[in-house]
Design a protein that fits this description.
Keywords: Lipoyl. The glycine cleavage system catalyzes the degradation of glycine. The H protein shuttles the methylamine group of glycine from the P protein to the T protein. It holds the Pfam family GCV_H. Belongs to the GcvH family. It is built from four helices and nine strands; from the N terminus they run E-E-E-H-E-E-E-E-E-H-H-E-H. It is α+β, with helices and mostly antiparallel strands. Strands 1-2-3-9-8-5 form a six-stranded antiparallel β-sheet. It has a three-stranded antiparallel β-sheet with strand order 4-6-7. The relative contact order is 0.26.
């Protein structure tokens, strides 16, 4: 299982890449593996400001639909529109082309609540 050291994680299986006050968010390799083949990604919260742990979208797989949760508070400034036509990118490259949203961070102190790669490995039993 791929768990890049440079990223931060949540117990809800989202990953977070921090670049100043812009944060890129997606689902982890573990999450995409558990979901199975992803057929649809829906994010209707573009340009909205959401609080940590609010739902920002859904991901639909062959067998299930799962909510996507904000790992930190912020304004959603970008959605990876390529996922509309190619949702399988989430399965194929969850940490690269399968990213989901970018947000403008509201509260940098919330970053301290995120898990390191090693802490996330403990969550998934890796």
């Amino acid at each position: 299982m791929n768990i890049p050291q440079e990223l931060k994680y949540t117990k809800d299986h989202e990953w977070v890449k921090i670049d100043g006050d812009t944060v890129t968010i997606g689902v982890t390799d573990f999450a995409q593996g558990e979901l199975g083949d992803i057929v649809y990604v829906e994010v209707e919260t573009l340009d909205e400001t959401l609080d940590k742990e609010e739902v920002f979208g859904t991901v639909e797989a062959v067998k299930t639909v799962s909510d996507l949760y904000m790992p930190v508070s912020g304004e959603i400034i970008e959605f990876n529109e390529s996922l509309e036509d190619e949702p399988e990118k989430v399965n194929e490259d969850p940490y690269g082309e399968g990213w989901m949203i970018k947000i403008k961070l509201s509260d940098t102190s919330e970053l301290e609540d995120l898990l390191s790669a090693d802490e996330y490995k403990e969550v998934v039993g890796s």
